[in-house]
Design goal:
Blueprint lengths: L10 H8 L2 H27 L4 H17 L9 H8 L6 H28 L18 H35 L1 H15 L10 H18 L3 H18 L12 H4 L3 H31 L3
Length: about 290
Protein backbone atom coordinates (compact mmCIF):
# COMPACT_ATOMS: atom_id res chain seq x y z
CA UNK A 1 0.00 0.00 0.00
CA UNK A 2 1.37 3.42 -0.95
CA UNK A 3 2.34 5.69 1.91
CA UNK A 4 1.29 9.31 1.82
CA UNK A 5 4.43 11.53 1.51
CA UNK A 6 5.35 12.99 4.88
CA UNK A 7 5.48 16.56 3.54
CA UNK A 8 1.85 16.27 2.34
CA UNK A 9 0.52 15.32 5.77
CA UNK A 10 -0.99 18.32 7.65
CA UNK A 11 1.14 19.44 10.65
CA UNK A 12 -1.69 18.75 13.09
CA UNK A 13 -1.84 15.14 11.89
CA UNK A 14 1.93 14.73 12.23
CA UNK A 15 1.74 16.17 15.74
CA UNK A 16 -1.16 13.87 16.67
CA UNK A 17 0.75 10.78 15.59
CA UNK A 18 3.67 11.80 17.79
CA UNK A 19 1.39 11.83 20.84
CA UNK A 20 1.80 8.64 22.94
CA UNK A 21 -0.74 5.95 22.04
CA UNK A 22 -2.11 5.85 25.59
CA UNK A 23 -3.13 9.52 25.38
CA UNK A 24 -4.52 9.16 21.87
CA UNK A 25 -6.58 6.11 22.84
CA UNK A 26 -7.98 7.76 25.96
CA UNK A 27 -8.88 10.99 24.13
CA UNK A 28 -10.48 9.25 21.13
CA UNK A 29 -12.35 6.74 23.28
CA UNK A 30 -13.72 9.41 25.57
CA UNK A 31 -14.81 11.61 22.66
CA UNK A 32 -16.52 8.67 20.93
CA UNK A 33 -18.47 8.00 24.12
CA UNK A 34 -19.28 11.67 24.77
CA UNK A 35 -20.68 12.43 21.30
CA UNK A 36 -23.89 10.53 21.98
CA UNK A 37 -23.52 9.43 25.58
CA UNK A 38 -23.28 12.94 27.01
CA UNK A 39 -23.71 15.69 24.42
CA UNK A 40 -26.52 14.32 22.23
CA UNK A 41 -28.38 12.71 25.14
CA UNK A 42 -28.32 15.94 27.19
CA UNK A 43 -29.43 18.08 24.25
CA UNK A 44 -32.26 15.73 23.31
CA UNK A 45 -33.61 15.61 26.87
CA UNK A 46 -33.31 19.39 27.20
CA UNK A 47 -34.82 20.43 23.87
CA UNK A 48 -37.33 17.72 22.91
CA UNK A 49 -40.22 16.66 25.16
CA UNK A 50 -41.06 12.95 25.55
CA UNK A 51 -42.12 10.80 23.83
CA UNK A 52 -40.54 12.58 20.82
CA UNK A 53 -37.19 12.73 22.62
CA UNK A 54 -37.25 8.93 22.75
CA UNK A 55 -37.71 8.66 18.98
CA UNK A 56 -35.02 11.28 18.35
CA UNK A 57 -32.48 9.50 20.53
CA UNK A 58 -33.20 6.13 18.94
CA UNK A 59 -32.47 7.70 15.54
CA UNK A 60 -29.24 9.23 16.85
CA UNK A 61 -28.15 5.88 18.29
CA UNK A 62 -28.81 4.19 14.94
CA UNK A 63 -26.58 6.70 13.11
CA UNK A 64 -23.97 6.46 15.89
CA UNK A 65 -23.91 2.65 15.68
CA UNK A 66 -23.59 2.59 11.89
CA UNK A 67 -20.84 5.20 11.75
CA UNK A 68 -18.63 3.88 14.54
CA UNK A 69 -18.87 0.30 13.31
CA UNK A 70 -17.21 1.48 10.09
CA UNK A 71 -19.94 2.56 7.70
CA UNK A 72 -19.95 5.65 5.50
CA UNK A 73 -17.36 8.34 4.77
CA UNK A 74 -14.47 8.88 5.18
CA UNK A 75 -12.89 5.78 3.70
CA UNK A 76 -9.55 6.68 5.28
CA UNK A 77 -10.86 5.85 8.79
CA UNK A 78 -13.14 2.94 7.88
CA UNK A 79 -10.63 0.19 8.69
CA UNK A 80 -9.78 1.78 12.03
CA UNK A 81 -13.46 2.16 12.92
CA UNK A 82 -14.19 -1.47 12.07
CA UNK A 83 -11.22 -2.62 14.11
CA UNK A 84 -12.24 -0.62 17.17
CA UNK A 85 -15.84 -1.77 16.93
CA UNK A 86 -14.61 -5.37 17.15
CA UNK A 87 -16.62 -8.21 15.61
CA UNK A 88 -20.37 -8.44 15.16
CA UNK A 89 -20.24 -11.97 13.74
CA UNK A 90 -19.35 -14.83 16.07
CA UNK A 91 -19.95 -18.60 16.00
CA UNK A 92 -23.16 -19.70 17.74
CA UNK A 93 -21.42 -21.35 20.69
CA UNK A 94 -19.27 -18.24 21.25
CA UNK A 95 -22.40 -16.08 21.21
CA UNK A 96 -24.11 -18.40 23.67
CA UNK A 97 -21.33 -18.45 26.23
CA UNK A 98 -20.50 -14.77 25.83
CA UNK A 99 -24.14 -13.87 26.53
CA UNK A 100 -24.15 -16.19 29.55
CA UNK A 101 -21.06 -14.32 30.77
CA UNK A 102 -22.72 -10.97 29.95
CA UNK A 103 -25.92 -11.64 31.87
CA UNK A 104 -23.96 -13.17 34.74
CA UNK A 105 -21.92 -9.95 34.92
CA UNK A 106 -25.12 -7.88 35.05
CA UNK A 107 -26.48 -9.93 37.95
CA UNK A 108 -23.04 -9.94 39.57
CA UNK A 109 -22.98 -6.14 39.83
CA UNK A 110 -26.39 -6.12 41.51
CA UNK A 111 -25.14 -8.77 43.91
CA UNK A 112 -22.07 -6.66 44.72
CA UNK A 113 -24.29 -3.65 45.43
CA UNK A 114 -26.56 -5.65 47.73
CA UNK A 115 -23.59 -7.00 49.72
CA UNK A 116 -21.98 -3.54 49.80
CA UNK A 117 -25.09 -1.90 51.18
CA UNK A 118 -25.45 -4.58 53.83
CA UNK A 119 -21.95 -3.66 55.01
CA UNK A 120 -22.40 0.13 54.75
CA UNK A 121 -25.65 2.07 54.80
CA UNK A 122 -27.28 2.71 51.44
CA UNK A 123 -27.02 6.48 50.72
CA UNK A 124 -30.47 6.76 49.19
CA UNK A 125 -30.47 10.56 48.90
CA UNK A 126 -27.12 10.68 47.07
CA UNK A 127 -28.35 8.04 44.63
CA UNK A 128 -31.47 9.81 43.42
CA UNK A 129 -31.52 10.74 39.74
CA UNK A 130 -31.75 14.54 39.26
CA UNK A 131 -34.91 14.27 37.14
CA UNK A 132 -38.54 14.86 38.01
CA UNK A 133 -40.71 12.17 36.43
CA UNK A 134 -43.88 13.07 38.33
CA UNK A 135 -45.54 14.72 35.31
CA UNK A 136 -44.98 11.74 33.00
CA UNK A 137 -47.09 8.59 32.67
CA UNK A 138 -45.38 5.46 33.98
CA UNK A 139 -44.94 3.94 30.51
CA UNK A 140 -42.98 7.00 29.35
CA UNK A 141 -40.80 6.87 32.45
CA UNK A 142 -39.98 3.22 31.77
CA UNK A 143 -39.20 4.01 28.13
CA UNK A 144 -36.87 6.84 29.18
CA UNK A 145 -35.09 4.64 31.71
CA UNK A 146 -34.64 1.79 29.25
CA UNK A 147 -33.43 4.24 26.60
CA UNK A 148 -31.00 5.82 29.08
CA UNK A 149 -29.64 2.34 29.81
CA UNK A 150 -29.25 1.67 26.09
CA UNK A 151 -27.47 5.00 25.56
CA UNK A 152 -25.05 4.25 28.38
CA UNK A 153 -24.50 0.65 27.29
CA UNK A 154 -23.92 1.42 23.63
CA UNK A 155 -21.85 4.60 23.91
CA UNK A 156 -19.71 3.58 26.89
CA UNK A 157 -18.89 0.14 25.52
CA UNK A 158 -18.06 1.48 22.05
CA UNK A 159 -16.05 4.37 23.50
CA UNK A 160 -14.26 2.66 26.40
CA UNK A 161 -14.07 -1.04 25.50
CA UNK A 162 -13.83 -0.36 21.78
CA UNK A 163 -12.05 2.80 20.68
CA UNK A 164 -10.04 3.14 23.88
CA UNK A 165 -9.24 -0.47 24.73
CA UNK A 166 -8.50 -1.90 21.27
CA UNK A 167 -5.50 0.34 20.46
CA UNK A 168 -4.15 -0.15 24.00
CA UNK A 169 -4.50 -3.93 23.67
CA UNK A 170 -2.45 -3.86 20.48
CA UNK A 171 0.34 -1.83 22.06
CA UNK A 172 0.42 -3.03 25.68
CA UNK A 173 -1.58 -6.26 25.82
CA UNK A 174 -4.99 -6.93 27.41
CA UNK A 175 -4.06 -6.70 31.10
CA UNK A 176 -2.55 -3.22 30.85
CA UNK A 177 -5.25 -2.09 28.42
CA UNK A 178 -8.14 -3.19 30.62
CA UNK A 179 -6.48 -1.63 33.67
CA UNK A 180 -5.96 1.75 31.98
CA UNK A 181 -9.49 1.80 30.57
CA UNK A 182 -10.95 0.86 33.95
CA UNK A 183 -9.08 3.69 35.67
CA UNK A 184 -10.36 6.19 33.07
CA UNK A 185 -13.88 4.72 33.25
CA UNK A 186 -13.89 5.12 37.04
CA UNK A 187 -12.55 8.69 36.91
CA UNK A 188 -15.11 9.60 34.22
CA UNK A 189 -17.90 8.79 36.69
CA UNK A 190 -16.54 10.99 39.49
CA UNK A 191 -18.97 13.75 38.49
CA UNK A 192 -21.86 11.58 39.67
CA UNK A 193 -22.92 12.11 43.28
CA UNK A 194 -23.36 8.37 43.82
CA UNK A 195 -19.89 7.40 42.57
CA UNK A 196 -17.87 8.36 45.64
CA UNK A 197 -18.85 5.37 47.76
CA UNK A 198 -18.43 2.73 45.08
CA UNK A 199 -15.15 3.61 43.35
CA UNK A 200 -13.82 0.07 43.73
CA UNK A 201 -17.08 -1.36 42.37
CA UNK A 202 -16.92 0.93 39.32
CA UNK A 203 -13.37 -0.21 38.64
CA UNK A 204 -14.29 -3.88 39.13
CA UNK A 205 -17.28 -3.83 36.78
CA UNK A 206 -15.21 -2.02 34.16
CA UNK A 207 -12.64 -4.80 34.41
CA UNK A 208 -15.44 -7.36 33.98
CA UNK A 209 -16.73 -5.62 30.84
CA UNK A 210 -13.17 -5.22 29.54
CA UNK A 211 -12.56 -8.95 29.98
CA UNK A 212 -15.88 -9.68 28.28
CA UNK A 213 -14.91 -7.61 25.23
CA UNK A 214 -11.50 -9.28 25.06
CA UNK A 215 -12.60 -12.90 25.40
CA UNK A 216 -15.62 -12.59 23.11
CA UNK A 217 -13.93 -10.40 20.50
CA UNK A 218 -17.13 -8.36 20.34
CA UNK A 219 -18.69 -5.32 22.01
CA UNK A 220 -22.22 -6.67 21.82
CA UNK A 221 -22.09 -8.94 24.93
CA UNK A 222 -20.75 -6.01 26.94
CA UNK A 223 -23.49 -3.74 25.58
CA UNK A 224 -26.12 -6.31 26.60
CA UNK A 225 -24.56 -6.62 30.07
CA UNK A 226 -24.11 -2.87 30.53
CA UNK A 227 -27.61 -1.95 29.38
CA UNK A 228 -29.20 -4.71 31.51
CA UNK A 229 -27.26 -3.50 34.52
CA UNK A 230 -28.36 0.09 34.03
CA UNK A 231 -32.04 -0.78 33.59
CA UNK A 232 -31.93 -2.16 37.14
CA UNK A 233 -29.76 0.70 38.39
CA UNK A 234 -32.05 3.40 36.98
CA UNK A 235 -35.33 1.77 38.03
CA UNK A 236 -34.31 0.38 41.43
CA UNK A 237 -31.19 1.96 42.91
CA UNK A 238 -31.59 5.49 41.54
CA UNK A 239 -35.40 5.68 41.54
CA UNK A 240 -38.10 3.64 43.28
CA UNK A 241 -40.03 2.78 40.13
CA UNK A 242 -39.18 -0.92 40.50
CA UNK A 243 -38.99 -0.87 44.30
CA UNK A 244 -36.42 0.30 46.80
CA UNK A 245 -33.62 -1.15 48.91
CA UNK A 246 -34.61 -1.08 52.57
CA UNK A 247 -32.20 -3.51 54.23
CA UNK A 248 -30.20 -2.20 57.18
CA UNK A 249 -26.42 -2.72 57.43
CA UNK A 250 -25.16 -5.70 59.42
CA UNK A 251 -23.64 -3.30 61.95
CA UNK A 252 -27.26 -2.85 63.10
CA UNK A 253 -28.78 -6.25 62.33
CA UNK A 254 -25.81 -8.58 62.81
CA UNK A 255 -24.82 -11.18 60.22
CA UNK A 256 -28.21 -12.54 59.23
CA UNK A 257 -29.52 -15.08 56.72
CA UNK A 258 -30.03 -12.43 54.02
CA UNK A 259 -26.39 -11.32 54.22
CA UNK A 260 -25.02 -14.88 54.17
CA UNK A 261 -27.23 -15.77 51.20
CA UNK A 262 -26.26 -12.56 49.36
CA UNK A 263 -22.56 -13.25 49.91
CA UNK A 264 -22.94 -16.86 48.76
CA UNK A 265 -24.72 -15.76 45.58
CA UNK A 266 -21.98 -13.18 44.94
CA UNK A 267 -19.21 -15.78 45.17
CA UNK A 268 -21.17 -18.19 42.97
CA UNK A 269 -21.65 -15.49 40.33
CA UNK A 270 -17.93 -14.64 40.32
CA UNK A 271 -17.18 -18.31 39.67
CA UNK A 272 -19.83 -18.57 36.96
CA UNK A 273 -18.56 -15.46 35.18
CA UNK A 274 -14.97 -16.73 35.26
CA UNK A 275 -16.09 -20.09 33.86
CA UNK A 276 -18.27 -18.56 31.12
CA UNK A 277 -15.58 -16.05 30.13
CA UNK A 278 -12.95 -18.79 29.88
CA UNK A 279 -15.36 -20.99 27.89
CA UNK A 280 -16.04 -18.07 25.53
CA UNK A 281 -12.34 -17.49 24.95
CA UNK A 282 -11.57 -21.19 24.34
CA UNK A 283 -14.46 -21.56 21.90
CA UNK A 284 -13.45 -18.41 20.01
CA UNK A 285 -9.86 -19.63 19.73
CA UNK A 286 -11.05 -23.06 18.57
CA UNK A 287 -13.21 -21.46 15.87
CA UNK A 288 -10.32 -19.28 14.68
CA UNK A 289 -7.11 -21.23 15.38
CA UNK A 290 -4.83 -18.91 13.42
Amino acid sequence: MNQQPLHSVPPIVRFWHRVPIVIRAVVIGFLVFAIAGSVAWTLVLSLIPPPWSILAMVAILWVYWRYFRGDWWPDSTRAFRKQCFRSTSLPTKVWTWSLIAALTAAVLLQSILVVTFRIVEFPAEAWKLPYDFSALPVWQVWMLLVLAAMVAGITEEIGFRGYMQVPLEERYGPVVAITIVSVVFTVAHFTQAWAGGIIIILFAISVVWGVLARVSGSLIPGIVSHASTDVVNFSYWWTDIAGSFDKEPISQTGIDTHFILSLTILLALVSLFAFAARKTLLLRRASNPQ
